[in-house]
Batch of 4 targets.
Target 1
Amino acid sequence: MDLSRCQRSRLVRNTDSAVVKRVVAFAVLSLVSQLVAAQQAVTLRFVDYKTGKPIPNIRVTGILWNGTSLKSATKDQGVVSKVSTRTTKDGLVTIPLPASIPEHLTVSSLDAVDQLSIDLVVSQVLATGVTVQTDADHLVDWKSMPVEAPGEAVIITKKQTARDRNPE
């Protein structure tokens, strides 16, 4: 099969164009997958201390910061980011982490009993996960404790009720 010079030229251009498109598509896909893999997050799981069930729809604020205390971090611009959201129906909140992982995460909620405020060490949460029970007066009485996973903090608390707000 003999091709004319013009046909060969067209064939080479079309082949080059297809190769370039494949290379560009592969490069874009590779870059996106690296960005997704690099994006880390801390998952907070809020669990009711009486029932062990998720606590949905409570307001939660997460502050990522560096330094010796949140008060000094606020003054010295050590606060990296702040996220305010509500828990999902499964009692979950996801706090995205920046590329340079901060030292601390302070979690607070005015909707939880005793106006919850917890300081977590981010590296510990990422490595092994943590479980925090916020109220020592209310010991967990279910058969199995929730098991945290790396990157997850299980927070055992209670959603604040009208009776908790006005204990008279």
Note: Residues 1-38 form one domain.
Target 2
Amino acid sequence: MPRTKKTPSQQPAASSSRGSADRGPSDAGSFDALLRKTIGLSRPPTAQATEPEALAGVLRELEPEAALKLRILMVAGREGRDIGAIHGAMTSADQDPSHAALELGKIGAQLGEFLSRGHAIACATQFDLEAPLARWAIAERSELEERVWLRFGRQLAMQPLDEWECLGATGGGAGDPLAKLYLRLGKTVWWSFGAVIDRPSPASVKSEARRQTGKKAKLGRLRDIPAHGCQSDRRALKRAVRAIRARVGA
């Protein structure tokens, strides 16, 4: 069962809705640090013999609010849902931290995958994971751009990593950071990320490729993207790469 001591007071969420994924390296006591630690201990490919016990220990020691936050993210990743909507639909049983910790402990090897998916949705939607749980209520996504970001985050979370096609545009020089990123799932419409998020047609992607001869390169797998730097003024590109990093566990 999780510990019942009070959680430390937290600062209100930023009014700009920039999430914890926009911040610098994780504080050891932050929820982001706890999330990354839990994911790391839950991933079967790198699990050591002692890690199941280590994960069980982390789950036993969870603060009540942290247990509930982890469960919400797990459900978001498992079902491809909006984080605020899950919070708003919680039943009285779902609001019991002991129940949340027990549910997390029963998931097994898939826990890390579900949390990574939920983290990707959080990064894509700039959800502030460090905000107090009381502020994890349903947020109105009245702006078209934010609804598009939620759609991308859900698709990123729920579709296999190896099914994405990735193209990138750079300044042309060796080692230049990305200026634009193009992603496509199978034969669906492309996503593009530069200064803004967009859904270009295949024809427009080919047309731009012709205009930028020598500046466009196939990046290979989705899990290779975090190794590339981004131009600092490309707001949507940086946001997409943060979400991809979360999805692949980079």
Note: The chain has nine helices and five strands.
Target 3
Amino acid sequence: MVCDYGSTVILLHPYTGGAGASTVTLPAPQLNNIEHYNLKTSFGTAMSGDIYSYIKTPAVSKLTMSFVRLTLALKNEMILFLDTIGGDDIKLTDWLGNDWKGKISGNPVQFEEGINRYNLTLEFEGVPV
């Protein structure tokens, strides 16, 4: 099943856009997408002897998105985009319309080949803006 809210994921490099910017528009990802949280719980003792805890949420989130049935042209466009960005920050607009600033992780990005179509699992680490 595919997400249908915004229906696309847009990748932009450089993050600020402008003249000469590269853009790739991917179809909506599968619904099994994951936003990873690396929550940390800390415990302490107050001067009164009471024990307390708090949860620290890191600023960076990791998104894992699965795209299916990509055409050969879109696969080649994505490969060219990945070669262009290097390790630079990019802007990702997700299928919900949220903007993120970060980097594509999970290097190397690999495509799974199907019958005249390609599947891609993309990992992105960044912060919402």
Note: Residues 9 and 94 are 5 Å apart (CA to CA).
Target 4
Amino acid sequence: MKTRIISFLFLLIPLFCLDSCKESYVYAPAPMPLQTRWAQDVTPGNAWPDYPRPQMERAEWLNLNGLWDFEISKKDDEETLFTRRILVPYPVESGLSGIGQMVGADSIVWYKRTVRIPSSWKNKDILLHFEASDWYTRVWVNGKPVGEHKGGYDPFSFNITHEVIPGKKCEILVSVWDPSNDGPQPRGKQVKEPKGIFYTPTSGIWQTVWMEPVDQTHLEDFRVITDIDRALVRINPIIAGDTEGLEVEATISGAGRDTIHEMISASGWSEIPVPDPHLWNPDDPFLYGLNLKLIRNGEILDEVHSYFGMRKISLGKDDKGFTRLMLNNEFVFQNGPLDQGFWPDGIYTPPTDEAMVYDLQAVKDMGFNMLRKHVKVENRRFYNWCDKMGILVWQDMPSTSGYVPPGKPDLDRPSEETQQFEQELVQMIKTKFNHPSIIMWVPFNEGWGQYNTAGIVDLVRSVDSTRLVNNTSGWQDRGVGDVIDLHHYPDPICPELEENRANVLGEFGGLGLYVEGHTWQEENWGYKKMGTKEDLLEQYRDFYDRIREMKDACGLSASIYTQITDVETETNGLMTYDRKVDKIGRSGLRKINRIR
């Protein structure tokens, strides 16, 4: 490799001194303007310790989160000295990483650590997983390159079997380059100079790093599609390795119901009847257990535990003739907040799993039944919790740079940029495909990076025909997809009725209330500033009185309020950025937000 990495200060600091410094290193967060109460729970020994892939869980795995050797170098530097340590999986810019430093587009961040491979993993293939690293990641094991990946939001893996020896230590070296808004890649609201509606960027590893042992023939992935009209589930195993003589056993379990055992195809789709299905919905998020085994000559080669929810999302007419968003063949008004997924202490990475669940529980406690995950993709545990808690999710694709002004045509983008966007879009859909909570894909937001809209809608449908597609949320509607989506601040309005698409209000509100002592900085803003909690409650109630009228009078099918929490200088959240103050109170909101 071009850049040579050494872990001692050659001719500058004696080797024994550097080793001694590392041994005596005591983790401490970097200074940050604000933090949540969960920040104090974060230590190198408990940094995101939970299994990261709940929909395909194996018994054996090794969590590599914790302290790694770290440094930032210029792209053309020939030597990099590991003089610091970072707490993985928190991004470089975050306080919880222990670094808290912006990274320029002319720089590369480096990670290194030594891992002992368990002796019990002998005769197994060994996979090294990254849940997410932003943006261009290269990996070496024991000095040999094992792979690279471009993408800031999707999980990726490398087979490192031939580079390691079970029972022995190995050295993992990682480099990440992230141009953020200086590059053409999807990056959502990350910018190097945060202000207004754009925020602190995330560079480097920002989700769990882990290993697992598998047989040479193993389940690489699988797809689940439920069909409530025919009372069955369709399963498609995706298998790595030799499939000759391979059998796949699927076991479906449900509370109080008979367990179903079926042998299914090792290649292609199989259908399994699910009699009298218990349907998944926000008020009753019932999940069936699913166990998949790969068997050859009576020997179990692989076994994973999963689940699925029997549910259907579609368009349909109500008794007034309005085209509606239908859940399980019935109209359910979808009401939720915009959720941007930023944290004052972890930036893109919640401080803990408990902190992430706290936000989701707030959504439920406030009476919402959905959320719009705004131009960010979360870790797979997030969607697992949405599945279990019964929260409908509209999932945005992170935006790229570039902007389409109102009334102007789509952008004409270079092929290398569109290829990268589409690659990351497809990976987002594939890696989140099995989550029943996700019911709509949103490829574009407000003209940001918008190009070839009709073609992108077709691409999304070619990958996933089971969910709805919102061609663009706000402003630059191109007449395709399943909904017409308007944004309007601060007060709500209703899109015009259409025969074949449902009308939704993709953003409104933004009522700002500054809470002293709980803001990122003193300078702050909201789309409409409120003087007191009482003013906020009165205006919020008035807005939702209008939403109810629009639901009945003009066929409004969904509304999304901006937003669940404050974010950096924005103070238009229902909670403060540190999650310590509910500005209105959950019980009061619940009465307002329950729209039937």
Note: The radius of gyration is 24 Å.
